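Sharing a chain and its predicted structure for anyone who wants a worked example. Both blocks are below, sequence first, tokens second.
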Amino acid sequence: MDILLMRLQAPLLSFGAPIIDKRGVIQAYPAHSMICGLFANALGYRHRDFELLERLQDRLLYASRQDRRGERIRDYQTVDLGQDFMLSDRAWTTRGEVEKRGGGNNTGTHIRLREYWADAAHTVAVTLKPADESPTLDTLAEALHQPARPLFIGRKTCIPSEPIYLGLTKAEDLLEALKNAPLAVGVSAPTSCQVWWPSSGKSAAVGAPGVLHQPVTDRRDWANQIHVGQRWIARGNLEFGHSKE
């Protein structure tokens, strides 16, 4: 199996779960929609490219290894939506390209709570099915090397502290790729790390001891901008014995 390896590490990470009212909660692993959005941003896709986004999300399979859990923190945020620079007739830029703001001319002070992982690090193994359809893993690797737009991990404030792309490799499966992948810099070599990977569902619930199979809602309906659907993931400990980078 051809596999692309990524390192998700930053002073702040946002592995967002479905938002509850004003509270932007996080979860322990990167969501399916977040991994899709990260690649889509690197490729230069836009939110209106619904079919491209849906197809990429459908093809993505990945597993995430928690090299360092980090600390969960909460940020209390306020913004005055009536300020001139927040109006929809103003513009902002991304690498010199002017784009109009959206969202209408709201007024008043908006309050929200946003959670983050501080000083966390994950290593992610990604593959595509089918492998020969465009974009390929080689295309994704090239996009991470030279992204169409600046990359962030979950939210725009979450800037990577090192290059995301680790390399391309071959392995029997995603877990084997993670077992052989180097640990994040500064992480002492443990005997095991917590890991999340795709599961076949309830039929797998009688698998290896210590492995939990659960349904999650972390895919995105890109046309309507909501989290929908359900998939199964497994959570357990990955045993290995290699040294850090």
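Comments welcome. Residues 2-239 form a domain with the Alpha-Beta Plaits fold (CATH 3.30.70.2660).
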